[in-house]
Amino acid sequence: MDINDFIFSRTQSQKKVDIIKSLSCDELLAVKEATIKRMVKEAGRKIGRTRDRELYISSERREGNAWNSTIESVDVVKNKIYINLYVQYSNTDSTLCEDYDEFFANGSYRGELHRTDRYGNPRTYYFIYSREAKATVVKAILLEYVFTKYAEKLKIQDYVENNKNDA
């Protein structure tokens, strides 16, 4: 199954969620840049008064490298995709904007954060995303798209399922 076509198909939203959750690492990393761009344009919110869009990842779906950073949002700015990451260390936390092509290049991604420590000395902090961590980030983006675009349908389905269990 090609996830790039399936995500935009006319399939039940709950079935989309189930299939996204069951995708393997290789299938998740096969998501194309054009697919991500289309998802952000369809389900993302406007940034200011521009044509730029942002797909904000809600807190329950945020994924990261299971160490010191998580994905915060995906932006399309002037038709180019950026990944916003929240990075936290002992004395600093900040949001970084990483280029999509560099972040999702083959192999692991090693990012840098340049800050000063508590004594004012310049420091370089690093964060690393393996292939598996990148795949969880893609899964979070796909799930956020489905939950944002089909919010009403998913709420109705949850309501029906909860009432079936009560009966």
Map the helices and strands.
Elements: H1 3-6, H2 13-21, H3 25-29, H4 33-43, E1 45-46, E2 53-56, E3 69-77, E4 80-88, E5 93-99, H5 100-103, E6 109-116, E7 122-129, H6 131-149, H7 151-166
Antiparallel strand pairs: 1-2, 2-3, 3-4, 4-5, 6-7
Helix pairs in contact: 2-6, 4-6
Describe it.
The chain is α+β, with helices and mostly antiparallel strands and 167 residues long. It is built from 7 helices and 7 strands; from the N terminus they run ααααβββββαββαα. It has helices at residues 3-6, 13-21, 25-29, 33-43, 100-103, 131-149, 151-166; strands at 45-46, 53-56, 69-77, 80-88, 93-99, 109-116, 122-129. The protein has a 5-stranded antiparallel β-sheet with strand order 1-2-3-4-5. α2 (13-21) packs antiparallel against α6 (131-149). The radius of gyration is 18 Å and the shape is globular. The N and C termini lie far apart (37 Å). The mean pLDDT is 89.
Record the strand order, biggest sheet.
1-2-3-4-5
The residue fraction in helices comes out at 40-55%
Structural class: alpha+beta
Q: Give the overall pLDDT as a whole number.
A: 89
Q: List the total number of helices.
A: 7
Tally of domains: 1
- Total DSSP E strands: 7
Morphology = globular
N→C terminal distance:
37 Å
Uncertain segments are: none
Name the beta content range. 25-35%
Output the radius of gyration: 18 Å
Largest sheet: 5 strands, antiparallel
Helix/strand order:
HHHHEEEEEHEEHH
